[in-house]
Each structure stands twice: as structure tokens, then as C-alpha cells.
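Note to self: keep these together.
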Amino acid sequence: MEKTIIAEGRTTNEAIEKGLKQLNVSKNKVHIKVLENEDKRSFFSILAPRVVKVELTLKEEEIAKETKGVKPKKEIELTEEEQEKAYENISHFLSEMIKFLPEDTKYEIEKTKTGVNVDIHHQNLGYLIGYRGETLYAFQNILSAIAGKGINNKVRVLLDIEGYKAKRERTLEELADKVARTVIKTRKSITLEPMQAYERKIIHSHLQQNHKVETVSIGEEPNRRIVVSLKK
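Structure:
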């Protein structure tokens, strides 16, 4: 499945550079086709602003590597003893940590087959969420390491603070719908800003319901992005 964009510039090189920046890839990862050359200008267009159009298409090996259609790894289910151990590890840590959080902060811990879910509640914990959840996800990784202490298998911890994830999911779904409408109207691909894997998954899943657009992830972490384009 080809992924193609059209970029414009005053020269061929400028158009190519803009396209590469939009796809967030290097030149050796795309096929380039010049659609409108700066040298081919008629007498009647000589006074018009110079515009060069180039078509950049991701090479097949890059599409295979970058596309979201990779089968997710199967999560390892923990034994009941491991679940209990993970629960105890997190419970002990949070019982100490809560002493340093605002008064009346509450938390809930739920055992799951792959680890634990943690919900922390207090309206003044924005600093634990951070810009677009960056601190929250870093804290989640720390909790995963703590939960897995003394356990051979990987323990998955899902952390939420004051319902942030649900709010962020709604925001991302609204963004996805808005971008899809723009792509359909303009017939031009749109590359979103870098996002974490969890957020990209929300947009991929939401736009699967839209039969007019398709999505693909490109680039390397932490600058991996989603490109939304018309279905061919």
C-alpha cells in the first residue's frame, strides 16, 4: 500500500525538502517524481509565482516497517501469586508516596491478569500528569518496574490520574475527526505532530471507522507521527 504526498516549493530541492520534512524521513526512503518543473514555464505563466510540485512516495520496505498493521505482541498472563505480589509491591509504594501528595489524595489499585491498574484522584495533581501526559507515562513506567520486583514475568501497570486518559482520548478523537474532514475536503495528506504510542493507537483505531481516509505511522521514536491521507 503506497503512501504518497505532494509537496510544493519555489525550486525542486525546496519542494523535496518540504516533503521529506512532512513525512519525517530521509531522502533514501522515498521515490521522488517531479510533477511540475521550474524549467517548464510558458510565456503566459512567466509572471506567475514559481511553483514546483513533487510527488514523494514511501518505499515499500518503509511502509512495511512503519505501518500500524503489525500484530501486537501477546501479553503474558501472570499467575495468581504473581498478581498478588505485584499488587503488594504497588500498594506498599503508594502508601508511602501518598504522604508527599496533597491532603485527601486517594488511590485505587486493581489486580489484572497482566498486572495492575492504578487510579489516583485529586484535582491538584497536574504536575504528575505533565504536558500531554509525559510525566504520567514516565511515572507509569516507574510503577511497572516497582510492580515487577521479585517477579520474572513482565508486569503491566496502567496508571490514570484524575481521569486524564479518558479526557485525552476524547480530545484525540475530536482531533482525528477534524483532520479527516480537512483531508477529505482538500484531498491532501496531513502529518500530525509527534505522539506517544498510546495516543497514536487511539487515532488509528478511531479513523478505522472512516471509509474515506487511512492512517500510517512514520518516523522514529520519540518523533514518530501519524499521516492521515485519502484512501486510494
